[in-house]
Amino acid sequence: MLSSWNDLHRPVRILVFLLIAAVLIQIYRETEFVASKIFSVLLLFIFAAIIAMLLTPLVDAIQEHPLLRERRAMAVLILNVVLLALLAGFLALLIPSVASQAATLGDQAPKLMGQAQGTAGTIQAWLNGHGIPIRISVPSNLETFIAPALGSAVQILTGVLGGLINLLLIIVIAIYLQVQGREMIAALRQLFPAQQELFDFTLVAAGSTLAGYVRGQVIFAALIAALTGIAFSVIGVHFAIVIAVITFFLELVPLIGAPFAMVVAVAIAAVQGPAILFETLAATVVIHGALAYTVGIKVMGDATRTHPLVAMLALLIGAQLGGVLGALFAVPIAGILNVYLGALYRANQGKKAFTLPPEGEATTLEHLPNLGAEITQMAEDDNISREPIPRATPKRRPSKAQSQAAKRTAEEATPKASGS
């Protein structure tokens, strides 16, 4: 009997180890699921905090009115109502044009599909004539596109409703943060009584970097959208306003949005003939390629006080690691790290690491340390300290031969006294 139990000892031990491994894997999967859900909720608060941070200076300006100095909630309400009214007015002006162009697109869909078939046939004939055996097929009707859309209508509706609910939650959270954000920060500050200077520095560094980045992105996206709408209207591309609106929202996503905007524009222009297609392609290359990937990177770098190459590196790493969200937050994170590295460099040089402007003065990134600026300043200080102090050139003493020659010359020039 004892021998049989000894024979079962090894298999039972292996089975126990396998069960432990399975339990650990299941715990990891559940933890990953819970972490993803918590991260989704935290994203709502992050976006709301960014909006509140951008609107807080406007609330402060409104609250300077004598009637609103002790009524911050009223100032927040006035600002948000005005912003919503402006947004509603903009949409009221934009939606009729978009709806009209969208309706026209729906009416012209069969004709556009026919034009697309003709264009595809022409391209295929040209390629086959040059020895490139490629077959290009375009569906003869919209059923190929409509059927999958109808099949996933429930998912699309669920996604749209979820997006609207998240947007509403972001707005509500942002309003609460505008009203009571400073009180909440003051309460959190009391939780770290021994590290209040570090807490203030961290808050200012993160807030200033995010605010500068968001402002730069919104301004640049609006510029690209305006240039796109104007250029496509001049070229004669159909639905130029729709393309411009889509371009604005896509350009808010760095590195990834520009290619999608280019594809949308070229796809709509492709059915209008080769001439419009090539003109649209050239315009998108100039607007997106020359601006989004050059000026856009420079704008993001300047907004966060990072070198354009560092901003590009952060974008590529963020996109590889986190996809769209990684590309969104990569440059601000790089800017915040740049501030901290600058503070650490200051500390290593024996200077005060965490420096903030005087209380009551508006804080910008210019008030915060920056690694590149700190290194450059230190190098300039070292060069100045190492420059030699100019000295007066000493007079050379004449040699002995020169002294004797000068003495003889002086004696010859002096007339001798006549004898008496």
Question: What overall geometry do the principal axes of the alpha carbons give?
Answer: extended
- Individual helix count: 12
What's the gyration radius in Å?
36 Å
| Topology order in helix (H) and strand (E) letters | HHHHHHHHHHHH
Largest sheet: none
The percent range for strand residues is under 5%
Structure description:
By secondary structure, this protein is mostly helical. It has a domain at 13-107 and 152-191. It has 12 helices and no strands. The termini are far apart.
Q: In a nutshell, what does this entry contain?
A:
The protein has helices spanning 2-63, 72-107, 109-129, 143-151, 153-189, 196-235, 240-251, 257-269, 274-304, 308-348, 371-386, 400-413. It is mostly helical. The longest helix has 62 residues, at 2-63.
